[in-house]
Design brief:
alpha+beta; 9 strands; three-stranded mixed beta sheet
Length: 108
Amino acid sequence: MINVTDKAKDRIIELREKEGKSNDHNIRVLVQGGGCSGLMYDLKFDAQIESADEVFEDKGIKILVDKKSLLYLLGTTLDFSDGLNGKGFQFINPNATRTCGCGESFSV
């Protein structure tokens, strides 16, 4: 399961409207190689649900995850911060053993 905080939900809805996307555009969460810790998160809107995708829904937000990325993301919470210490989406990932200072990459 992947969860979404209220702040992340509000920001996703705001961005979807700002980019002119319909409610059929869901959030796709990917894990890719790269970053200073070895693995990076990637978020994007996607209207296509692939047959190999796992689909989670929390607070009315559908989250699409491919099976490879799911291994790294189970139990993760997607949050959004707009504070002084950084602005953007943050992943609270119980599987990460190390994260970089910017919070965009991790290792397991």
